[in-house]
Amino acid sequence: MLPNADLKKFALVLFADETGTFDDRVVEIIERISSPLSGIVRNISSNENIQKKEKEKAFLLDFAEDIAAVRKKDDLEASISSVLDRMLGIRLSMIRVIDDAGELLEPYMYDERMFGNGNEEFKKQASQKIPVSEVLSARVLQQKEPVIFNIVEEEAKGNNSPYIKFWKNAGFSNAFGAALRVGNKNFGTLWLMIDDINMTLLKGLCAQISIAISNILANEKIWNYKQKLEIENTHLHEQIRGLYNFSEIIGEGAAMQNVYHMMSAVSDSATTVLIHGETGTGKELIARAVHNASPRNKKIMIKINCAALPPHLIESELFGHEKGAFTGAYEKRIGKFELAHGGTLFLDEIGELPLELQVKMLRVLQEREFERIGGKETLKVDVRIIAATNRNLAVEVGAGKFRSDLFYRLNVFPITLPPLRDRREDVEPLTRFFITRYSKKTGIGVNSISPKALSDLENYSWPGNIRELEHLIERSILLSSSSTIQSVHLPKVIPEDAIGHEVYMGQTLEEIERFHIIEMLKSCKGKISGPTGAAEVLGIPPSTLHSKMKKLGITRADYFPV
Questions:
Q1: What are the coiled-coil residue ranges (predicted)?
Q2: Dihedral, CA atoms, 9, 12, 17, 23, nearest 10 degrees?
Q3: Is 280 left (phi over 0), alpha (psi -120 to 50) or beta?
Q4: What pLDDT does 242 receive?
């Protein structure tokens, strides 16, 4: 806007004649109109500024209303990209957020189109976590106002940051950085590549974006805590309903004393434990005992059965997934590794883990980090691993069915549980324990077992181990007509010295398995599923038993003749 004196000079020049002179009347007219004209110009300019500010306020208000309803990161990203394009004609370079430890700035959102398709250098730098002490980020976080970095000036100062070099190679003159904060607390940074910027407008945008991201992060944490609490609650109920607890480890023989010694030696550490043992020997009980005796006992132990889930679901169970990561992923899921943070993860039947997942498992065990399926964020976890298997993993490695590097990573501290046939001195105390338990559970007043029945139990080979003994005692209590168990319905007894020799000579594994299943079905009077059924005695799901019976050609006539 021209001052009054300058406006007068402009008018005199405008109204001068061809000789450059003007008469007194013109001068008088100009002097009379210059002051009003100056006021009019000032008013026009003021109105333009007011309209500009009103437009900016209206824009910020609209933007605030748009993002007030935003609850998800994807929706916020779309809103930010739209507003930057509409008002400033630019794209979002990068938003980073400070991690929970306050040490690293993690990528939160960026526009991959910023530097054109295929710009691998941008993607590489954009995906990296950087320390909050990084020179450019630290300057931004320390300033109350946004900071404009002039590339040439920064180079002249000797700033050799890789970001300065990258911006220069990309052809930019300036970079804009602003701290994202709510109140006095920093929680991230926003970066734009732009030469001319409306600072007032951009400060307002940063304030709105800060609040929106802060709310989304808070909502995500609340959702994560809620999901973790729900799952932990489920696991705790499972533990309460479980068959065993630490005080219920029964066995005083030499074989179990060695197990107790190994447990005591490893419990106080965070060392990975691999528990070997046949089905039904109580591997989960030992795992829980090690966890309960460890410094991690205030945290939960999460169990996953690698044999109980289809291969395509195990990865999601272990590592979790993001919403939309695959068909059916309708919401984000937290995996077992993340849930077990600070505690213990029990990987039961680890020998059943598919080969393609063994590579990812190895990485987690080595680096203690992973990504959810469909996610970009790398998550770090502090988890103790206890694995269990009824397979000989060394043999599996030789057969190419299990990775040798994963086996050596798991087999740091092996504990081998003896089968029940090798600890016959523990059959009697285990039997009396189960009699007490199931007498209370069923309400049937059975409190003892006859010497003959006990002798039968002690001479049985127990292919199903402790689980088989437990189920047999429960069934015997239900069938008992007095306070003493007089007899037990065992499968056909195979002499101990014949096991693996005369009885099995010339027989295939399928023939031996078929014989054992038929004997179990006979002892259960043909009952397959439910309490005291053959599936429960064998320790396998009824569906698995049906599949085995079909495969082995076992019909009703084999175990329940008409």
A1: none
A2: -130
A3: left
A4: 43
Q: Which three-class secondary structure state does DSSP give residue 474?
A: helix
Q: Which helix (H) or strand (E) holds 388?
A: strand 384-389
Strand partners for 378 = 371
- Beta strands (DSSP E) in 80-146 are 94-98, 104-109, 130-131
Chain position carrying tokens 């590097």:
405
Please give the structure tokens belonging to residue 471. Answer: 């189920």
Token pair of 231 as six digits: 């799952």
Task: Assign 3-class secondary structure to 195-220.
Answer: CCCCHHHHHHHHHHHHHHHHHHHHHH
CA distance 315 to 199: 47
Question: What is the predicted pLDDT for the residue at 494?
Answer: 47
- Is the domain spanning 70-215 CATH 3.30.450.40? The answer is yes
Q: Which two tokens stand for residue 411?
A: 């087999």
Contact present, 213 and 187 (Cβ < 8 Å) = yes
Find the DSSP H helices in 161-282: 162-169, 199-241, 254-267
- DSSP symbol at 268: T
Domain boundaries, the chain: 4-58, 70-215, 242-416, 421-559
C-alpha–C-alpha distance, residues 216 and 196, integer Å:
30
pTM: 0.55
Q: Under CATH, to which class is 242-416 assigned?
A: alpha beta
> Could you report the per-residue pLDDT of 318-351, keeping only the tens digit for each?
888 887 777 776 777 888 898 889 999 999 999 9
Residue pair 111/193 in contact by the 8 Å Cβ criterion: no
Which listed CATH number (1.10.540.10, 3.55.50.30, 3.40.50.150, 1.10.8.60) goes with 421-559? Answer: 1.10.8.60
For the cut 50, the answer to whether the pLDDT of residue 436 exceeds it is: yes
**pLDDT above 50 for 497:** no
Helix axes 283-292, 254-267, angle to 10 degrees: 40
Whose structure tokens read 């195990």?
314
Among residues 70, 88, 87, 150, the alpha carbon closest in space to that of 79 is found at 70
